[in-house]
């Protein structure tokens, strides 16, 4: 039954005469009075079942909504480009934070009239999926050919995608989740676009192959990029101090010293690299000292600045000479294993800028096959005529090969097959002892790189890999970043620094589950061919027969006619390469799916990912986009704004870990756990609300107490909406009810509308700045303070007891309607299911709330005067409520309605805006404002002589005056009205005047 009909029925039930007289007591049913009140009525539940609600509304506010808005071509387009999560395992809280943040942005733009393009994707290649597939097959990569591994990995990836897709949808994400509307890096069309981008980079001269040191993972048996490393601060190494015998040569200072052996003291944390030593590096600007030790021990050379730090290593020693580093350059020394491999030629001391006196001895052992700085130093000095001149004894599994005997002699046989990180390193130390080169072993804990996939240490070792040269495109990349917006702004410097520090990108991997680098190798010369004509031919074959055909098809089909020789079998001249592309290259080419903008370049409005993507996807997108563009059109980025979020920690600030038992799963939050008391069913909106409350650009905390707080906040907002829905009536009632214009509204209504206008402006600004915590804070404050603690409190009496069509009640309802629709627009991007519920209940429709464009309030509702006046009255209200509370504490009253308020004005010499305000608003408003039965404003001199049975006195300063306003709280003088419960009834009447007029309106 609607409010209108309910009100009429209540009036008809009053069958007594309008002349009360003595007939009142015998003919009137007091329940009729309560039945005539317009108490809140709504079917909107306070505590619904989240699972049932979200299941009912899921399609409406997710898939169907996305499809509806995507077809509205008249809307301007907004593109949020989805960085593909890795298709492996259940979702963790980082996934939830990432996807919900994206969804908030998307939903806000839909509500503001944009057509959103959001295509969810998955990164499907790489080692973890390959390893999972091999584990399920019960095999390892060395025992199977590529095709069975690829088929198994493909099936594993698709299975994981379906699992993650189902979980993503439980988060209430607006998207089309069909296979046709999503992307996978295994899709044929995706891989072909990737290969064409690679071809363009080849055409631009960016791609090359080189034998040089790279990050190599023995556990993965593959090269790694910097972005695939994690650094651990607690790695333990057994470092060694070793000595090399210097050959005095023509160095005058050394030649004139006493005729003892001179040793160069070197320190290294990787003793296994000593078998590949090719030089000792010094810094020309450092000063070195020659130390004499007791007895006939050899002289030793170290950096002068390291003497104090090395006191325990050097022992008692005297400085017999100082040598400028530049004087040592060119001197030679005997290889460390020369005593067991006599044919080794002497090696040289070289200058290198990376040598410092901050650690070690000031002399650095150089193995250019195992260190980027060593390698660069050699190339810079022109010491590597050919890459093959590098000395490297490490194989594909991180083990010593039999080539190690070339520098260690027959003794090196004990090293062959040993892991350089384990047994091999220990055995090298034993050999150092045998040759008398070991000075000391030290166990140190230090920062060391690990394979982020296998969580095992990596090594630097020389292998033949494909690289992208970044030096030629770096300036364009940095210029492009200068035109990108960053949230938070500080993340600009982080990404810029990463790009500045990179000179090349190792893009090849030694795995089979990936996109191939389609290079041909000439068998007689073992040289690679990778050029535009060859690639064009290969890509035509792969486009027709599928990417997997690279492993399955014969080499004859991939060799273009120009590379064939008459009468010679193709497979005796050529072989296909076995390397695959770095997975960051895979996902980094996802920008090729983006629509072209006004400048005819593909660009997303927003990309949003975790801070680790400064080293990963943010970079790989930028670099592939620029490197594949013609030189004249470089300098653009595939994104306009980059947003970065941090990690999710537990509520104590610790990293979530299964071993610590502090992991909070997003699906447990949404669906609940086995123990519902411990893990209740919160539903997606509570999780989303938590996301909206955090400063996501920092690491965020989450745990049981935080979730409980988020759930309580959502409940309060829900209860606010429920109060409004219960009081504004249904669509029919609201349609028949005449709205009240702003000019006819009272101060409280104008103040609430002013605060609502400010709330909306803050929310719009917060959404525009991607600061959702700002939105949630303002929304919660408005709901809990402005509404629940004030406006609802002071308007209940009028809503319940006034006539349905009274101007006072209509004014409140007019405000409540605007409050509800505006608040719902504000909260909808963050808690869409709650917003859909409210929209459905208010409008009695099954259309999505997002189908109605967010229409902002007119600026006329901005009312600074109402705000200033209300602030003055709120200070007065605080003082009055304190007096009422004192009376309640003393048990003088149970309800504030049992009291009256007297405001005693002093004689003022100057006009007072505050007093004018009290007089203008009148006592009818003030008694409602105080929730008392009456309020009077009197001069101190006209105070009556009646002495109440109790009174509470207080004062407050009158704003702008030196005088105080006196406040008296005393018992109500009239009787309690049986209908509205205010103490405003004259003893001889059954009801108060207001209720009498409602029950028996004048005819």
From TrEMBL:
The EC number on file is 6.1.1.5
- PANTHER family to which the protein is assigned, alphabetical: ISOLEUCINE--TRNA LIGASE, MITOCHONDRIAL (PTHR42765:SF1), SOLEUCYL-TRNA SYNTHETASE (PTHR42765)
The entry assigns this protein to a family as follows: Belongs to the class-I aminoacyl-tRNA synthetase family.
Write the protein's name.
isoleucine--tRNA ligase
Which UniProt keywords are listed? Aminoacyl-tRNA synthetase, ATP-binding, Cytoplasm, Ligase, Nucleotide-binding, Protein biosynthesis
Stretches assigned to the Methionyl/Valyl/Leucyl/Isoleucyl-tRNA synthetase anticodon-binding domain: 749-902
Which CDD domains does the record associate with it? Anticodon_Ia_Ile_BEm (cd07960)
* Source superkingdom: Eukaryota
Q: Which GO terms describe its biological process?
A: isoleucyl-tRNA aminoacylation; mitochondrial translation
NCBIfam families reported in the protein's UniProt record: ileS
* Gene3D superfamilies for this protein: 1.10.730.20, HUPs, Ile-tRNA synthetase CP2 domain-like, Valyl/Leucyl/Isoleucyl-tRNA synthetase, editing domain
Which InterPro entries does the entry link to? Answer: aa-tRNA-synth_I_CS, aa-tRNA-synth_Ia, Anticodon_Ile_BEm, Ile-tRNA-ligase, Ile-tRNA-ligase_type1, Ile-tRNA_ligase, M/V/L/I-tRNA-synth_anticd-bd, Rossmann-like_a/b/a_fold
Answer yes or no on keyword Protein biosynthesis: yes
GO cellular component annotations, sorted alphabetically? mitochondrion
Q: What class of enzyme is it?
A: ligase
> Domain Aminoacyl-tRNA synthetase class Ia: where?
66-701
One matching Pfam family, short form? Answer: Anticodon_1
Record-level Gene Ontology MF annotations: aminoacyl-tRNA deacylase activity; ATP binding; isoleucine-tRNA ligase activity; tRNA binding
């Amino acid at each position: 039954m609607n409010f209108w009909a309910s009100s009429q029925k209540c009036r008809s039930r009053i069958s007594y005469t309008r002349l009360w007289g003595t007939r009142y007591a015998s003919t009137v049913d007091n329940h009729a009075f309560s039945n005539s009140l317009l108490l809140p009525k709504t079917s909107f539940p306070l505590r619904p079942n989240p699972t049932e609600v979200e299941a009912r509304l899921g399609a409406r506010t997710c898939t169907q909504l996305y499809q509806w808005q995507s077809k509205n071509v008249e809307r301007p387009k907004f593109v949020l480009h989805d960085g593909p999560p890795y298709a492996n395992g259940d979702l963790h809280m980082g996934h939830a934070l990432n996807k919900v943040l994206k969804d908030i942005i998307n939903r806000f733009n839909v509500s503001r009239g944009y057509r959103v393009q959001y295509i969810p994707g998955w990164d499907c290649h790489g080692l973890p999926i390959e390893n999972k597939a091999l584990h399920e097959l019960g095999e390892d990569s060395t025992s199977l050919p590529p095709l069975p591994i690829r088929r198994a990995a493909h099936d594993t990836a698709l299975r994981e995608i379906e699992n993650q897709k189902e979980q993503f949808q439980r988060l209430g994400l607006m998207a089309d989740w069909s296979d046709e509307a999503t992307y996978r890096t295994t899709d044929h069309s995706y891989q072909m676009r990737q290969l064409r981008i690679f071809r363009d980079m080849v055409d631009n001269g960016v791609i090359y192959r080189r034998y040089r040191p790279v990050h190599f993972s023995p556990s993965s048996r593959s090269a790694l990029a910097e972005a695939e490393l994690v650094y651990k601060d607690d790695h333990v190494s057994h470092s060694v101090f070793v000595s090399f015998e210097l050959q005095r040569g023509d160095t005058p200072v050394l030649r004139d010293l006493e005729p003892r052996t001179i040793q160069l003291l070197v320190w290294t944390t990787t003793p296994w690299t000593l078998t590949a030593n090719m030089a000792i590096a010094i810094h020309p600007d450092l000063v070195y000292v020659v130390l004499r030790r007791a007895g006939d021990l050899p002289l030793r050379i170290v950096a002068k600045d390291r003497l104090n730090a090395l006191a325990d290593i050097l022992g008692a020693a005297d400085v017999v000479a100082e040598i400028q580093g530049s004087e040592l350059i060119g001197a030679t020394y005997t290889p460390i294993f020369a005593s067991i491999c006599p044919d080794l030629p002497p090696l040289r001391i070289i200058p290198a800028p990376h040598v410092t006196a901050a650690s070690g001895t000031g002399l650095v052992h150089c193995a250019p096959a195992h260190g980027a700085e060593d390698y660069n130093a050699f190339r810079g000095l022109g010491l590597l005529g050919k890459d093959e001149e590098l000395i490297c004894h490490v194989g594909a599994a991180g083990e010593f090969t039999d080539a190690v005997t070339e520098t260690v002699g027959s003794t090196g046989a004990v090293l062959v097959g040993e892991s350089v990180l384990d047994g091999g390193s220990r055995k090298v130390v034993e050999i150092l002892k045998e040759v008398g080169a070991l000075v000391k072993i030290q166990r140190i804990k230090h920062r060391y790189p690990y394979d982020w996939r296998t969580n095992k240490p990596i090594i630097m070792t020389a292998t033949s890999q494909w690289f992208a040269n970044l030096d030629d495109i770096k300036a364009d990349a940095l210029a492009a970043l200068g035109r990108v917006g960053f949230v938070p702004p500080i993340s600009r410097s982080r990404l810029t620094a990463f790009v500045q520090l990179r000179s090349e990108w190792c893009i090849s991997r030694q795995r089979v589950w990936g996109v191939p680098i389609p290079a041909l190798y000439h068998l007689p010369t073992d040289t690679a061919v990778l050029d535009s004509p060859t690639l064009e031919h290969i890509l035509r074959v792969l486009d027709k027969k599928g990417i997997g055909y690279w492993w399955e098809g014969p080499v004859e089909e991939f060799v273009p006619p120009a590379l064939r020789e008459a009468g010679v079998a193709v497979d005796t001249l050529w072989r296909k390469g076995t390397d695959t592309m770095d997975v960051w290259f895979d996902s980094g080419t996802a920008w090729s799916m983006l629509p072209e903008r006004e400048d005819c370049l593909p660009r997303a409005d927003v990309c949003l990912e975790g801070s680790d993507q400064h080293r990963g996807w943010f970079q790989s997108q930028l670099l592939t986009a620029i490197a594949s563009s013609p030189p004249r059109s470089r300098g653009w980025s595939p994104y306009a704004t980059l947003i970065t979020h941090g990690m999710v920690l537990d509520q104590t600030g610790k990293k979530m870990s299964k071993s610590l038992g502090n992991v909070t799963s997003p699906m447990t939050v949404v669906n609940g756990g086995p123990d519902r008391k411990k893990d209740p069913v919160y539903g997606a909106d509570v999780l989303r609300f938590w996301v909206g409350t955090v400063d996501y650009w920092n690491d965020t905390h989450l745990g049981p107490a935080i979730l409980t707080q988020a759930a309580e906040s959502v409940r309060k907002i829900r209860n606010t909406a429920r109060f409004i829905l219960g009081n504004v009536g249904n669509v029919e009632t609201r349609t028949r009810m005449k709205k009240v214009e702003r000019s006819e509204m009272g101060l409280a209504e104008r103040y609430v509308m002013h605060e609502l206008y400010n709330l909306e402006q803050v929310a719009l600004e917060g959404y525009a700045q991607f600061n959702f915590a700002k939105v949630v804070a303002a929304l919660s404050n408005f709901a809990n303070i402005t509404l629940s603690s004030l406006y609802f409190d002071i308007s209940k009496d009028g809503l319940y007891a006034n006539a349905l069509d009274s101007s006072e009640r209509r004014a409140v309802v007019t405000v409540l309607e605007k409050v509800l629709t505006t608040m719902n627009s504000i909260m909808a991007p963050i808690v869409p299911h709650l917003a859909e519920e409210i929209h459905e209940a208010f409008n009695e429709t099954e259309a999505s709330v997002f189908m109605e464009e967010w229409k902002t309030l007119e600026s006329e509702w901005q009312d600074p005067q109402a705000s200033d006046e209300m602030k003055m009255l709120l200070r007065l209200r605080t003082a009055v409520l304190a007096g009422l509370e004192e009376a309640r504490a003393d048990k003088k009253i149970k309800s504030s309605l049992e009291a009256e308020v007297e405001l005693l004005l002093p004689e003022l010499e100057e006009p007072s805006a505050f007093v004018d305000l009290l007089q203008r608003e009148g006592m009818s408003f003030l008694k409602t404002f105080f929730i008392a039965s009456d309020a009077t404003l009197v001069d101190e001199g006209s105070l009556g002589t009646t002495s109440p049975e109790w009174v509470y006195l207080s004062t407050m300063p009158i704003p702008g005056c030196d005088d105080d306003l006196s406040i008296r709280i005393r018992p109500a003088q009239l009787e309690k009205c049986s209908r509205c419960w205010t103490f405003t009834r004259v003893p001889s009447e059954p009801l108060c005047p207001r209720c009498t007029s409602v029950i028996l309106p004048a005819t």
